[in-house]
Amino acid sequence: MPKFPPKNYIEAVNFPQEITLNPIGVVHSPYKERHGTPRQSQLQSIPKDYQPVLAQIELFPHIIPAIALKDMESFERIWIISWLHLNKHWNPTVILPRGPRVRRGTLATRAPHRPNPIGLSAPKLIKVEGLVLHVEGIDLLDQTPILDIKPYVSYCDAFPDARCGYVSEMEKAREHEVDVFGKGTLRE
């Protein structure tokens, strides 16, 4: 087989000045307001009576065919990439709702107010029914637009021994804001 000369793919296309994303679905969650909505889909230390809420991710049939979810049900967790559409502004530093009242760099936090308000959640996948994914432990508000869904793969998505800076210190001290653990379920 002949050897082809190397190609420089990065010079073939200009760097994008703007990126357009379209929602592929929507969250149906019991959370209607920010206060009382969990800050993460899972935390290390949780109260013994904590019950994660149930929610649904509805994918749009005009964008996603059902076959795109083939084999998804065999995964225990999924990554949900969302657009935090209620967040219109951001600051380079934030004060977190738990821990010491000090300013942290926004990109060193999971604050929803970001330069591009992209959310990342890893809820437990309960079942798939057509274009609806039933999940447990959601941290997203009702009607949040979904940009993408990917399977959670533990060998490359989990680094349990990784340093987590100030977050590890707060978890060790078991510091939580009052409403970090949302309650309730979405009723059909």
Structure in words:
This protein has 188 residues and is mostly beta strands. Helices cover 6% and strands 23% of the residues. The chain has 2 helices and 9 strands. It has helices spanning 154-157, 165-172; strands at residues 25-28, 54-59, 78-83, 93-95, 103-105, 118-121, 124-129, 132-136, 145-151. A 7-stranded antiparallel beta sheet has the order 6-3-9-1-2-8-7, with no helix packed on it. A two-stranded antiparallel ribbon has the order 4-5. It is globular. The N and C termini lie far apart (60 Å).
Secondary structure elements and pairings:
Elements: E1 25-28, E2 54-59, E3 78-83, E4 93-95, E5 103-105, E6 118-121, E7 124-129, E8 132-136, E9 145-151, H1 154-157, H2 165-172
Tags for this entry?
seven-stranded antiparallel beta sheet, mainly beta, 9 strands, 2 helices, 188 residues, disordered C terminus
Would you summarize the structure shown here?
The chain has helices at 154-157, 165-172; strands spanning 25-28, 54-59, 78-83, 93-95, 103-105, 118-121, 124-129, 132-136, 145-151.
